[in-house]
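Quick one, T. Sequence first:
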Amino acid sequence: MATMTGKRGLMEMLRAEGVKYIFGNPGTSEGPILDALEDYPDLKYMLTSQEGAAMGMADGYARATGKPAFVNLHIETGLANGLSLLHNAKEGGTPMVVTSANKDIRKLAEGRSELAEMVRLFAKWSVEVTDPAQIPSVMRRAFTEAKTPPTGPVYVGFSANALDGEADMEIIPSASGYFRLSPDKRSVADASRLLADAERPVMVVGDRLAQSGGVAEAVRVAELIGARVYAASYSEMNFPTDHPHFMGRIGAGMPGGHAILSKSDVVLAVGTNVFSGFFYFEGRALSEGTKLIHLDSAQREIGKSEPTDIGIAADPKVALAELAEALESSMSGSAQEAAKGRDFRMADEWAAQRQARDQRLQDRFDMSPMSAERMMHEIASVLPRDTIIADDSVTSRDAIHDAINFNQPGSVFGERGGALGWGMGGALGIKLAHPDRPVVGVIGDGSSMMTVQALWTAANANIPVVYVICNNKAYRILKLNMDVYKQQVLKEEDPQSQYLQMDFPNPMPIAGIAEALGIHGRTITDPSDLAPAMREALELGAPAVLDVSIDGSVEVR
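Structure tokens:
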């Protein structure tokens, strides 16, 4: 035990937890934290000029390292600005400890906010510390909550007196934690029998599979049963995109996704919500004859929205390994032959998909403005093999996946949760986690303007991220969503929309904003200029922005 101030106790706990960066935008009440940092040069405060940029940086850093990030915002006002990306962190399961300070409790302060209540809907755990003696135990629990599956953000508020007051403290960090929970043996046996007998098996994977490090095990199971594999989300590398079993991303709540899944007799959903979407659709996502096996570390999601035949609450990596062993020992010769037959058919289908992709690129190669496919083709041609993509492109995402194969864990990170603005800060956080690897942020023009202030941090801290802005001069996602709404909800066969307030008559000058901040910025309209400009930006060793003019029509595949 040692007597120390609350602010020093907080710093000692951060050091004990292995924290290197504090991502934040402080204010008056956070003065004690900044004062204490003067004695802790190993803790670097990554200052942002807008809270969304801080949240994005923390999210990217936490996901790239697999460790909880630490965020410091200002009282209720700054905290409120960070809530949209805190929502993303909650939905995506990003381990994060978010803090802000509050007014002193020793007097009845007018306007004192209930900060813990304010963020409760967006955090796994939310609490306010009002006594300095509470700080070590609360911080220990905060980091434990953040990294315990299902992982996610927590919030800790500090009254001013808790930071400045003194107490006897014992600095003990959170336990390392061994969270790989094994599945019930009967569930594995039942699931293996159902999958071995399946004639049309489908696997749907999500980001909690990637978070568990179980991609290799998922590949093994898919190959054993001859399953078609779809990604419910691809905000992390959850299945190799160049594997012949991988058929791309799927919107299970959309008519096309529903049709695909309903053709299956057994669906194995791994590490994903079953099945979420923004739009209402009638009936079940699966047909009545389709069996559902849901394997997930998020026990709360199992059986939540769709009738589930077998629910397995366990670490995806561990459970898939056991499932693979059960299949190898129990699959009959005829079942193995049937799986191999499906392999051959999928290989042909996969090759046809590649051919269709290449044909689409050629058909759209000479478009003006350039197509998203041409943009990503030119960029991919000069990217180093170890490049990490921070994807906040929204409607250009298909083009990214057409041009780049993701087959290594940690090669791509994307927005999840629905709140735009993640990518500008997210790319910076990823770069801090991997300073020796190139990081390219592929960002939609609308999304970039949500947190364009991240460029100031990039310049101020000289973080060498290359941003590619997909500038289609519109909120194209709103146009696409409007068509979906009219077709799926209003049941209009030939939807016609004026797309009110969805175009940008005055295009957003992202390159100009970058240049004003001292960052290399260039506007690209000619596709032949893009690859050389990308090569130049990568070689700078400094932040850069390529603002690329692309087609914004609503033609979809």
